[in-house]
Amino acid sequence: MESMRKSANNIIPSSSTTLQNPEAVSHLQESIASVLSRWTGLQMAVHNQWGGHDSFEKSRKLAADIFSWLSQSKARLYVEDVENFLHECMLLTFNTDLEDGSIEEVAEELMSIHEEYLQGNQSM
């Protein structure tokens, strides 16, 4: 049975129990970092420290949480779940309520990345 850990109000399977293609894992991490670095709403929140003096660390934790969720998910992910996660994180972690459509755009990009990851991981 997979071990579990709790992160950002979500249960995420522990990475220690899943075999993964190292190249696919690296690509997933880089892709998530790239999407988040281009997300203006998140970058403004970090730059202006809307989440407090540790906003940068919080953004890194967000990236790590997304990586854990996407890399360990065995069940089908729905874009609405990703959107809800991002919205909750921005609201609770960075005191930011984005209504510019960027959460939906970022969620769509993350879903595409997840699909690519699943395809790359199946070629082990």
Molecular structure report:
By secondary structure, the chain is mainly α. The chain has one domain. 65% of the residues lie in helices and 6% in strands. It contains five helices and two strands; from the N terminus they run E-E-H-H-H-H-H. A two-stranded antiparallel sheet has the order 1-2. InterPro entries: Pre-rRNA_process_TSR2 (IPR019398).
Secondary structure layout:
Elements: E1 4-7, E2 10-13, H1 22-38, H2 40-47, H3 55-72, H4 79-94, H5 102-122
Antiparallel strand pairs: 1-2
Helix pairs in contact: 1-3, 1-5, 2-3, 4-5
**What is the chain-wise order of helices and strands?**
EEHHHHH
Task: Write down the overall geometry.
Answer: globular
- Give a count of the beta strands, DSSP E runs of length 2 or more: 2
The averaged pLDDT comes out at 84
Oligomer: single chain
- Main beta sheet: strand number and arrangement? 2 strands, antiparallel
Tell me the number of structural domains. Answer: 1
Question: How much helix, percentage-wise, in residues?
Answer: 55-70%
Strand content: 5-15%
Within the largest sheet, what's the order of strands? Answer: 1-2
Low-confidence stretches: 1-17
